């Protein structure tokens, strides 16, 4: 969800890039919703902890998603 050369931006839904095979999987609405939820959690944690989203641990986001 984090672009390689842009800090402070998260991509979710159908606007992310990937291989043709991967694109066929993540364009489905439930997956778009899950990516949006993960991006929202990452943004909130980034603000709360005053760190860039790229410094967040994926495990922390995953734990909140599972909750």
Which secondary structure elements does this structure contain, and how are they paired or packed?
Elements: H1 20-26, H2 29-49, H3 58-66
Helix pairs in contact: 2-3
Q: Structural class, please? A: mainly alpha
Mind describing the biggest β-sheet?
none
Low-confidence stretches: none
* Range of helix content: 55-70%
For the secondary structure, the number of strands is: 0
Distance between the amino and carboxyl termini: 20 Å
Specify the number of helices.
3
Order of helices and strands: HHH
Calculate Rg over CA atoms.
Answer: 12 Å
In terms of DSSP E residues, the strand content is: under 5%
Global shape: globular
- Give average pLDDT, whole number: 87
What's this entry about, in short?
With 67 residues, this protein is mainly α.
Descriptors:
globular; 3 helices; 67 residues; mainly alpha
Walk me through the structure.
The mean pLDDT is about 85. The radius of gyration is 12 Å and the shape is globular. The two termini are about 20 Å apart. It is built from three helices and no strands. The longest helix has 21 residues, at about 30-50. With about 70 residues, it is mainly α.
